[in-house]
Amino acid sequence: MFRKIQGLFTRAPPNFSWFMHNLAASGIPSRRGHIRHLKGEGVTAVLSLTEAPLPRELYDGEGIKMLHIPLRNHEPPPAEVLLKAVQHLDELLKSGEKVLVHCVAGLGRTGTVLAAYLIYKQGMGYLEAVETVRRLRPGSIEDGQVEALKRFEGFLRAGS
Fold first, then answer.
1. E strands within the chain?
2. How far apart are CA 114 and CA 98, in angstroms?
3. Mean pLDDT score of the chain, rounded to an integer?
4. What residues act catalytically?
5. What's the pLDDT at 59?
6. Which of 7, 79, 121, 123 could form a disulfide linkage to 14, CB 3.0–4.6 angstroms apart?
């Protein structure tokens, strides 16, 4: 509730922070002011993990690419879906985009995809990836999502 109220009075989307070079994370950017803030931060692409896509009118004319990979809230995502998300994220970053990953609060699904990216790109073990994300974004990743990351690591190690 606090984040929703905070979001009404701040320009940045709730829980916004830079996670690593050219990769940011946040809760849902639900207002035009949030989008303007993202543009001011240099964000050029958004990976949305919410179940429903964001309204197109938020992004129209803003020059921000939008990619939607729906993940169900409070449910561990399948390894194949995580792989799709991190591959798209990697493609965006390799092409020079500055990417925002978001879900509603910017913690569970967002943290899970960030950790999956560390496993995929940097070869981290799932526990190290979870610890890294939680250190940089406290409150991230639910217990069931940790198990999904363990399965994701095994999926990658097995050659997907």
1. 17-20, 23-26, 45-48, 65-68, 99-102
2. 14
3. 92
4. 103
5. 83
6. 7
Neighbours of 118 (CB within 10 A): 22
Kindly give the pairing relationship between strand 45-48 and strand 23-26.
unpaired
- pLDDT tens profile 53-91: 988 888 888 889 999 999 999 889 999 999 999 999 999
DSSP letter string over 20-64? ETTEEEES---SHHHHHHHHHTT--EEEE-SSSPPPGGGTTTS--
Mean pLDDT, residues 153-160 taken together? 90
Q: Which of 92, 95, 155, 143 is nearest to 119 (CA)?
A: 155
Give the model's confidence band at 159: pLDDT under 50 very low, under 70 low, under 90 confident, else very high: confident
| pLDDT band, residue 7 (cuts 50/70/90) | very low
Q: Which of 134, 44, 32 lies closest to 98 in space, CA to CA?
A: 44
Boundaries of every domain in the chain: 2-157
> In the block, which residue shows the tokens 């409150």?
139
**Structure tokens belonging to residue 80:** 């194949």
90: CB partners within 8 A, 6+ apart: 117, 120, 121
| Residues facing 46 on adjacent strands | 66, 100
Is-contact 88 47, C-beta < 8 A?
Answer: yes
Q: What is the mean pLDDT of residues 26-49?
A: 95
